[in-house]
Design goal:
Helix content: over 70%
Number of helices: 14
Distance between the termini: 33 Å
Oligomer: single chain
Order of helices and strands: HHHHHHHHHHHHHH
Radius of gyration: 20 Å
Length: 317
């Protein structure tokens, strides 16, 4: 029942998203074949809608994978170095690979995101004090160090404005011809569905998973690769979007449990709904101007995160 409601909600919000914007587009204009309305629809509104949906689903599932593999509810691409390392990779690729095109930047950004993910995984395996709050704090501190390096490089090459655009996610520029890289996320989302059971087993612990015949190292590597590809593509096209991969899996787990095979569809749908709603709010709050998606997600996501945090403390108490 909840899944059907979320599907219906995605459809309704998608319709709202298509018809909201500084330029007026109506159903009558589309039916009548109004040239201006059709250009706005196919060049701007539909690419933006697709970008929001793919990003929402991709980041939510990435957070779910990382939480399963790390066995920690507060780990996500934004708290586990992945997104910070991806920003560093994109900045360096913009400086060093100016003639390689977007695929060269994608590869460079993916490598850095993957290295950041592996570094975080390595560190948490070495840490004895695996408190639920300490582990993501470790990731945030390490991410802060990487962000400092990124900022220094940006100052050296006069790319501070470019860096600021990465820090604040924005769908304003997701136009036809400038967003298609996000399509690379779709096959990796599908791959995550196929590996859902194995990610669940890996989340039970290395020894337990190996006793069941699971190739633990291979599954972890595949999971981190999926997360890194999705994160890299989102950072390149949209920028940094916080909290989506952190709060969505936690909310879904409250009513669906921890079996990834059972929750992955709901996580994807909830993520799409959440990001669509935040995008619509950002476009309406100071209409005809708009607030960046990073800001709206940051405000709503931080409130949701605090609620989840206090709820965990209440249950532990």
């Amino acid at each position: 029942m909840i899944r059907k409601v979320m599907i219906a909600s995605v459809l309704i919000l998608s319709v709202f998203s298509i018809f909201i914007g500084a330029s007026t587009v109506t159903i009558n204009q589309i039916i009548a074949g109004d040239e201006k309305a059709l250009i706005i629809l196919f060049v701007s509104r539909i690419p933006r809608l697709v970008s929001v949906l793919v990003t929402g689903v991709g980041l939510s599932i990435s957070g779910l994978i990382m939480q399963q593999l790390s066995r920690n509810r507060f780990v996500s691409p934004s708290t586990a170095v992945t997104m910070d390392a991806a920003k560093l990779g994109l900045l360096l690729s913009s400086v060093l690979l100016t003639s390689f095109g977007i695929m060269g930047r994608m590869l460079f950004t993916f490598i850095f995101a993957l290295l950041g993910s592996f570094l975080f995984t390595f560190l948490i395996r070495k840490v004895r004090f695996k408190n639920a709050i300490f582990i993501p704090l470790l990731g945030i501190m390490l991410g802060g160090v990487i962000n400092s390096i990124t900022t220094y490089i940006a100052y050296q090459f006069d790319m501070v404005q470019f860096l600021n655009s990465l820090m604040m996610g924005d769908f304003t520029h997701t136009l036809k011809g400038r967003y298609e890289l996000l399509y690379i996320v779709i096959p990796f989302i599908i791959l995550a569905f196929f590996y859902a059971n194995r990610f669940t087993l890996a989340g039970m612990g290395e020894d337990f998973a190996k006793n069941l015949g699971l190739n633990y190292g291979q599954v972890v590597n595949i999971g981190l690769s999926i997360v890194s590809v999705i994160t890299a593509a989102v950072v390149i096209i949209v920028g940094s979007i916080p909290f989506v991969g952190l709060i969505i899996p936690n909310i879904v787990s409250l009513y669906r449990g921890d079996n990834m095979k059972e929750t992955i569809v709901d996580v994807g749908l909830f993520g799409a709904n959440f990001l669509l709603l935040c995008d619509i709010i950002g476009r309406m709050i100071i209409y005809p101007y708009e607030v960046s998606i990073g800001l709206t997600v940051g405000v709503i996501g931080s409130i949701a995160f605090l609620i989840l945090l206090f709820r965990r403390f209440a249950h532990e108490g």
